[in-house]
């Protein structure tokens, strides 16, 4: 396993990868989904916490993009590269050979129409039992489409919405489609099969120059190509060479409410390791108050009008990150929580320096709705009891924050 900017990437060679995918399709009793990260996808994940979480929950994540291979090399790792177009062809061959029903959920506004895909698949994979369904860009499938899929009972499912929509759709709908054993998002890969776009010559693919070929064919993609090449490598190098010596600015939020029993503070239970803590997050260049309010609104989905700011403090505590130890096979360990199955998006930093934002909550409990990728539970705890509820590793920092809270007047 190689980790680049927080995203876990599979190191399986082609033969091993295809063997595992064949097992998923023909022998596994569980459902699986696969992602094919490239530099552009990893950049997007850095700004989309849900997408970041979904990528790292995938059973397999073969790298698609020469930039990832280069980044892995610079960290001392050998990372096999498996372009999505090649992977799709191999999976279609497996499906045809084993007579596995195959579904393509095709973006209704994509380059290739439903008939384009049907004609190209019939021509290239004569014995493939497949179905194409046009869909919109929505992470939740309509009830009638779900029923249509169930009636067809596919084993293999492709989604062509492009990232991050296709990965979010798979994550949120896979359990509703019990026949599907393997699902993956393939973006515009089927446009190569339909002939809408011509793939780069093999020599250009070998040297990682597909981006230049795509730029010649589609000059309008220049901004995306610039991000996937220049911006990605710049961010990777900053993370590798500079951030490893810096502490990431972080804000801890202390949200309280007045009750008949006394003041109570809200704590949350982390999704990745089950630890109870005060809500927190990066400042992203904002001051402590603004960042604290944003974190509470984003993580608890509460409205800003129900937050009454009381105080904010800079740099109260700092700590070093622990070095993660990634498992060899993600699919064998994904059910074991707390073992780096959910890497931190900012693990490139040396550690974190924490400020504190204090606010009174004036809304109702019904308003609080956690993001599934961040936390799995929340509760109000009396000030006097909070230290016992917080994980031991976080108690020292929490004591410092409580001292600031108790020192405030006229609360």
Descriptive report:
This protein is of the alpha/beta class. It has 2 domains: 2-240, no CATH class; 247-407, Nucleoside Triphosphate Pyrophosphohydrolase, CATH 3.90.79.10. The chain has 16 helices and 14 strands. It has helices at 14-26, 39-45, 49-56, 66-74, 84-97, 114-124, 143-152, 165-173, 189-194, 202-206, 210-217, 222-241, 288-300, 330-333, 386-389, 395-407; strands at 2-4, 7-9, 32-34, 102-107, 130-135, 156-159, 182-185, 247-259, 262-270, 276-277, 280-282, 307-320, 351-361, 375-382. The strands form 3 sheets. Strands 8, 9, 10, 11, 12, 13 and 14 form a 7-stranded mixed sheet that branches. A 5-stranded parallel sheet has the order 3-7-6-4-5, sandwiched between helices. Strand 8 (247-259) and strand 9 (262-270) form a beta hairpin. Helix 1 crosses helix 5. The radius of gyration is 24 Å and the shape is globular. The N and C termini lie far apart (50 Å). The model is unreliable at 325-342 (pLDDT under 50).
């Amino acid at each position: 396993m190689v980790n680049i900017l927080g995203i876990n990437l599979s190191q399986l060679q082609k033969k091993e990868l295809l063997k595992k995918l064949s097992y998923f399709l023909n022998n596994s009793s569980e459902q699986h989904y696969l992602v094919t990260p490239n530099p552009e996808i990893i950049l997007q994940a850095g700004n989309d916490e849900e997408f970041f979480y979904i990528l790292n929950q995938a059973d397999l994540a073969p790298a698609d993009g020469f930039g990832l291979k280069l980044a892995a090399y610079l960290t001392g790792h050998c990372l096999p590269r498996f372009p999505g177009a090649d992977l799709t062809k191999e999976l279609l061959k497996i499906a045809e050979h084993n007579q596995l029903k195959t579904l393509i959920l095709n973006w209704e506004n994509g380059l290739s129409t439903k008939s384009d895909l049907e004609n190209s698949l019939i021509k290239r994979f004569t014995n493939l039992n497949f179905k194409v369904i046009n869909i919109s860009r929505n992470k939740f499938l309509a009830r009638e489409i779900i029923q249509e899929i169930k009636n067809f009972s596919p084993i293999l499912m492709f989604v062509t919405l492009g990232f991050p929509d296709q990965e979010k759709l798979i994550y949120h709908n896979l359990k509703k489609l019990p026949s599907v054993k393997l699902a993956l998002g393939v973006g515009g890969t089927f446009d190569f099969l339909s002939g809408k776009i011509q793939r780069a010559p093999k020599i250009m693919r070998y040297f990682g120059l597909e981006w230049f070929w795509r730029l010649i064919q589609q000059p309008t993609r220049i901004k995306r190509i610039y991000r996937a090449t220049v911006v990605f490598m710049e961010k990777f190098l900053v993370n590798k060479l500079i951030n490893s010596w810096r502490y990431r600015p972080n804000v801890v939020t202390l949200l309280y409410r007045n009750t008949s029993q006394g003041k109570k503070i809200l704590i949350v239970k982390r999704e990745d390791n089950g630890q109870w803590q005060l809500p927190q997050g990066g400042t992203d260049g904002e001051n402590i108050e603004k960042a604290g309010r944003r974190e509470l609104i984003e993580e608890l989905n509460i409205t800003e009008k129900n937050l009454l700011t009381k105080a904010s403090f800079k740099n109260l505590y700092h700590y070093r990150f622990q070095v993660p130890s990634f498992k060899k096979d993600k699919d064998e360990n994904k059910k074991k929580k707390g073992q780096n199955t959910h890497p931190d998006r900012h693990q490139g930093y040396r550690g974190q320096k924490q400020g504190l934002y204090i606010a009174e909550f004036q809304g109702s409990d019904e308003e609080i709705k956690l993001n599934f990728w961040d936390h799995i539970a929340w509760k109000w705890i009396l000030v006097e009891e909070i230290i016992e509820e917080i994980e031991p590793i976080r108690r020292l920092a929490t004591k410092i924050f409580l001292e600031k809270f108790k020192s405030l007047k006229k609360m």
